[in-house]
Structure formats: structure tokens, C-alpha cells
Amino acid sequence: xxxxxxxxxxxxALGLIAPALLLAGWQWLATSGGASAVxxxxxxxxxxxxxxxxxxGTIFGDIVATLTRAFTGFAIGAGxxxxxxxxxxxxxxxNRVIAPLLNALRQVPMIGWLPLIGLWFGxxxxxxxxxxxxxxxxxxxxxxxxxxxxxxxxxxxxxxxxRFTTGQRFRRILLPAAMPLILTGLTQALAFAWIGTLASExxxxxxxxxxxxxxxxxxxxxxxxILVTVAITAILGxxxxxxxxxxxxxxxxxQPASI
Length: 259
What we know:
The protein has 11 helices and no strands. It has helices spanning 2-31, 35-39, 43-56, 58-90, 92-105, 114-121, 125-149, 153-161, 166-204, 210-220, 223-251. Helix content is 84%, strand content 0%. It is an all-alpha fold. The chain has 2 domains: 1-40, no CATH class; 42-251, MetI-like (MetI-like fold).
């Protein structure tokens, strides 16, 4: 354990250099006067805003609301995406029927759906969830389809030799061979779900959430609160990415380390 920590300590120190320089430069610009002092809040003000948000408890409720919305939309959207990608890869006729429509729909940016969704479903919680689901659906669908449809023929030939049933062929050949791309799609889907969550909260403003806090702080011209919320959003996004990377390594631990 001590040897592991001693190896990681230099890497950690190097990784802290850039944030430290950024904070030092930020503080200097914020306190030097002029236009930069208006555009940047001193670190002391940002820290005071963080204490304020923690003290009144609003930030914790916003974090829970945003995480709940993001993971719910991810679970629904990515689940449907994996199911659709699997179906279109297994049944080529289905792919020829619906692939042109899906490929046309995915060309519309996620934010571009907001006016239509707001018109059809209003600007409530349900509309925000639909935006998140859309963001997660397409990456999961495309990568799942590509992973299953492009399984090497030699693996399928092995299934023929052993006379696998359709279920055995899927469980023992298609799914394991496609798993790297499926997990890549899920990673991308979670990233888009996170972006969609913040975007829908900012533009629709229904319920609580970090996006709603950002919108409110902008109206109130609370630069310090905006910076605190942005920092919390970045930290949560980084933590989620690290968790997904760890899960990916565990699921694909049978693969060579270079993959």
C-alpha cells in the first residue's frame, strides 16, 4: 500500500499544478482592478457563497434533483437504446425499416428538440426527462448496433459448430464480443444525459437542480453562486466519469490491458 501511494504521489502533485496556477491567476485578476475584477469574483467571495449555499441547504437538494434526473433519464434512454440497437443488429429487415428514420432524427441536436418538446408536453419535469432520455438513447443505440452487427464471422462459425441455439449464440458470442462497444455507448450516453440534464434545467427551469440554480444566479447577477455551481457540476461530472471507467475496467477485466 505504501509503495502504491509513493508511486501515485508524484502524479497527483503534477496534476495539482495546473489547478493551483489557475486559481492563483484567477485571484490576481479578480483583485487587480479593471474589467477583469468585474468579470471575476475573488476566491474569498466564492468560498463565502459556497458556505452560504451549504448553510441554507439548497445546494444539497439541487445536487440530488440533478443526479436523480440525470440517472433516471440515462436508465430509460440508454436501456431503450441498447434494446433498439440489439434488435436492429439481430434482425436486418428491422434495421432497413427503421434505421433511416433513426439516423435522420439523431441529426437534430439535443437542444433542438426543446421547443417542440416544450410545445407538446409543457415545461415541467416530464419534458426535462424526455430531453435527457433522448440524449442517452442515440449513443447507446448506435454503439450497441455496431458492436453486435460487426462481430467477426469466425466467432459465429464456432457457434454453428457447437450448434448453439439463438439464445446461446447471443449470450455466449454476440454479447461478450460486443460488450466493449456497448460500454463505450453507455459511457457516451451518460455524458450526453448529464449535459441534457443541465441544459433542460437551464432552459425549462422546472423543479430544483443545479441548472435552475445557475439560471436564478444569472438573473440575480450572483457571479459567486454561478462559479460555485459550475465547480460542483464539474466535480460531479468528473466523479461520474471515474466511476464509469472503473465499472468498465471491472466488466472487461478479461481483455488485455492495452484495450
